[in-house]
Amino acid sequence: MASYRKNGSRWEAQVARGGVRSSKTFATKAEAQTWAAALELEISSDQGGGIPNKTFGDLMARYAAEVSPKKKGCKWEQDRIALLTREDELASVNLRNLNSTHIAAWRDRRLESVSGLSVVREWAILGNACAIAIREWQWLKVNPTTGVSKPQKESARDRLATQEEIDILVENLGYQKDAPPVTISSRVGASVLFAVETALRASEIARLRWDQVFVAERYAKILGGKTEAAKRDLPLSSEAIRLLQQMPRTSEEVFNIQTSQMDALFRKARGRVLIKGLRYHDLRHTAITRLAKKLDVLALARAIGHKDLKMLLVYYNESASNLAERLR
Q: 328, 316, 313: which is closest to 290 by C-alpha?
């Protein structure tokens, strides 16, 4: 039971229940009573096996710390969870309010940036985390990922960026060949050109540090991420080296941008110049298709970080007409 006492012109409420002690001062007794009643209800709910007063971000952080390390794909899973908790509004939803509409809204937001297959993979993480929260932690009573339609798994994309599209995007982002890219937008423009030269993923570009770059030897050490094969020495073209030498050394990271900034600014520029259907990850397809004309299949697989040569067919998207030209 809460107790109240007047202290000068203000009222102090004291709550002592279930081992929890708390007090707070208010201008009126009514405010003190409202606060005390809400706190007692919260304590009763928690002690009675109710859903704790935590956010979905708290749930995913615990999952990343306790469950993900037991999995083979720990690093990739923890990276996905970190992206969610850092950048998506789903992380701030209180578990007591969480329902399927929040999951559906998250799905729709993600589909604006990544493929349906990527959303399905991330969905599996969320669904398993919620299942464990119900079964082992008693943090949820119902899994909010059930009863919500998953996106259809898309067939492998074959969208390539044309040189004209690349040029207009880079220009719209404010990148200039004869000036260091000092703004975030211009650095995203530089990253577009670097992605087309190297076939690096957006996350690999964002994480690239100066101590991984060896200009004299013409290569960069890629430290891995999604797969062990992603850890590799990346050969650098003359254009890639030019871009690196142009970047200002203002941070440990070469491009000093986050993947969320790359995605958001790329999509905005794409909309401004009326380019349809192109995603940042399509730059990797574009780069691999171009590199295939210069490197043999084994060298290409090593450069882009694929142990399974079958994966090259997913990313190598040269048209039949272009192949026919090479047969003349």
A: 316
